[in-house]
Design brief:
CATH architecture of the largest domain: 4-Layer Sandwich
Radius of gyration: 20 Å
CATH topology of the largest domain: Purple Acid Phosphatase, chain A, domain 2
Shape: globular
Number of strands: 15
Largest sheet: 8 strands, mixed
Number of helices: 10
Strand content: 15-25%
Number of domains: 2
CATH superfamily of the largest domain: Metallo-dependent phosphatases
Strand order of the largest sheet: 5-4-3-2-12-13-15-14
Helix content: 40-55%
Distance between the termini: 22 Å
Length: about 350
């Protein structure tokens, strides 16, 4: 465990520190950009994600943080990726030219450090970013520092991916919730963040987390809250709550059925009291859409974006926001939101 603490702490010490005042941030990770062919992980969500960036986050003044594994350089060359995804890099350039882009390096795009870039997107790369909020730290880093996918092992995995996985068409996966390696990585980040009394926002595992809980935990808590609201509600309000409870139950069943998760619903940390120190932006290559972390107006939120076809397959909620971007519909759902003051108060009081 000491080696992982040292790796994470070294990233923290060398991270870029920025004050968090009225700025708005959106954090996305794990694009795994490839050759833009059928085996490219990002391809299926690329159309709506580019619209989300250009027609939602850019005009609203958000700072874009790309939190690692943007390029899939363990299977492809950077020149190929840049050539095939010119339109996406043009979107990144919009943010960069407004000084609203921070690009953090992960284990799949670590080879970016071997070249000197002159473009506005890749000329400034970071291992981590720290937002200083009222004397507290929000530490943004990819997360591979807490796993075994670094150093010589990462190079070995790169060779396997390029010469075995790539020819066989094996894609990067959205890991299920029972994955032991995922849990170990998250646990190491959790214990480090708890010890330091800070909030960590990672990617890497492709698994969305909010306040140290998974989206399954969030749905369970939402159902519990709705049931409590139901008791004091009037007849009309009860009808609305019944529909919302039913929708959340259907959503939960779909997640469980898809991820074969029946045995792993509970919290991933075997602790008496869960401290809200680890968040995960998830990934933008999920079959059920793209997830990210928003920071705005002294609050933090885990959001999911998805297309019309994904809604028809996975979602039944009628209350999700719908945006008509360039003649196509895209949905946005806030999975969980909380104030930063409340989160850091909980961390301070629960880690004493």
């Amino acid at each position: 465990m000491h080696r992982f603490f040292s790796e994470i702490d070294n990233t923290f010490k060398h991270a870029l520190h920025l004050p968090l005042n009225k700025e708005k941030y959106i954090i996305f990770s794990d694009f795994h950009l490839g050759k833009r062919k059928s085996r490219d992980d990002f391809l299926k969500n690329s159309e709506f994600m580019m619209k989300v960036l250009t027609e939602y986050y850019y005009p609203r003044g958000y700072i874009l943080v790309l939190n690692g594994d943007v390029e899939e350089l363990q299977k492809n060359s950077i020149d190929t990726v840049l050539k095939r995804w010119k339109d996406l890099y043009a979107v990144f350039t919009l943010f960069a030219e407004d000084n609203r882009l921070f690009k953090i390096v992960g284990n799949h795009d670590y080879r970016l450090y071997t070249r000197n870039f002159t473009d506005s997107v890749n000329s400034r790369l970071y291992d981590g970013l720290v937002l200083d909020y009222q004397g507290n730290s929000i530490f943004i880093f990819h997360g591979h520092q807490a796993s075994r996918y670094s150093g010589h092992l990462n190079k070995m995995i790169g060779i396997i991916l390029r010469y075995l996985a790539k020819p066989l068409g094996i894609k990067n996966i959205v890991r299920d919730y029972g994955n032991i390696k995922v849990h170990k990585t998250e646990e190491r980040v959790y214990l480090y963040s708890q010890k330091k009394g800070l909030v960590s926002i990672i990617g890497h595992t492709h698994r969305p987390l909010f306040e140290s809980f998974s989206d399954i935990d969030i749905i369970l808590f939402t159902i519990e809250r709705l049931l409590r609201d139901y008791l004091g509600a009037g007849k009309r309000e009860r009808l609305r709550l019944e529909h919302e409870i039913s929708d959340n139950r259907k959503h939960l069943r779909r997640i469980l059925a898809y991820d074969s998760m029946e045995g792993a619903i509970g919290s991933i940390y075997n602790q008496e009291m869960i401290i809200p120190v680890i968040f995960n932006s998830g990934c933008v290559i999920g079959p059920k859409g793209a997830t990210g972390i928003e920071i705005e107006n002294d609050s933090i939120a885990l959001v999911r974006w998805y297309s019309t076809s994904q809604k028809e397959k996975y979602y039944s909620q009628v209350n999700d926001q719908i945006f008509n971007f360039s003649k196509s519909s895209v949905y946005r759902k806030v999975l969980k939101q909380d104030s930063l003051e409340y989160i850091f108060t909980r961390i301070r009081l629960l880690t004493k």
